[in-house]
Amino acid sequence: MHTLIITPYKTFGTVATSTIRYRSNDHWVNGFLAMPSEQAEPLPCIIFNRGGSFDFGLIDDTMLERQLSFIASWGYVVIASQYSGNGGGEGKDEFGGADVEDVICLKEYLAQVPQADVSRIGMMGGSRGGMMTYLCLTRVNWLNAAVSIAGAADHDRQVILRPKMIEVFERAFGNTPAGRKERGAVNFAETFCKTTPLLMMHGTADWRVSPKDSLDLAAKLLDAKVPYRFVLFEGGDHSLSEHRKAEWGMIKEWFERFVKNREVLPDLEPHGK
């Protein structure tokens, strides 16, 4: 394992941020780290997966302050990747291909952060970041909880809903049917980790990623007995801007329950009177 290169960046209120540079798949990738400026003991961690593709949706100072630092202010060490090929990093953004390793390997790099308790890790992301979270849930079993906001789960639907995405998919992975299937969680919901509770949220007025992606995935996760909570926000747009308070309240509670406090998983077998 290579050394995580940490360079102090900016402070937002009580949260200190740093830029990070690390090796993934034999090339350099850039990202960010955020944590409370003062902490008495190691803190639980959140891996934050950004949305967008290539340089669209890059983590900038606004996102760093309003999202990563906001989450860190709850008492977490937050780490995030710009993904391969973006933000000055090497390699190629494959939109859910080999770049998934850019996210998974962050656990090992968190172990190099003295303030991080790597026995308690959550993951979250919106849109493409939700897709990255889904893909990680099929490959690792060490996440204590996960959150997806408007996660893309059906890319065959996506190219019909938004033909503009064809160009993105062409650039990222050739837009092959196999490539779309490999990135679409609706095709392999049964492989999701069954010990990681997932909070899924989506707005009914989202035109960027159809809420049907989450509806279809939720139905399959139910059959697979994956622990999850699914919330549809009436009239919510892609970023749930009309429901910001409720959205962040649910995210905070979810991570407090299952990451910070390690709450026991719910009983998914039929029960009750």
From TrEMBL:
Gene3D superfamilies per record: alpha/beta hydrolase
Protein name: Peptidase S9 prolyl oligopeptidase catalytic domain-containing protein
GO molecular function: serine-type endopeptidase activity
SUPFAM superfamilies associated with the record: alpha/beta-Hydrolases
Organism lineage string: Bacteria, Candidatus Uhriibacteriota
GO process terms (BP): proteolysis
Keyword Heme in record: no
InterPro entries listed in its UniProt record: AB_hydrolase_fold, Peptidase_S9_cat
Record carries keyword tRNA processing: no
Position of the signal peptide: none
Keyword terms, alphabetized: Hydrolase
Domain Peptidase S9 prolyl oligopeptidase catalytic, residue spans: 66-260
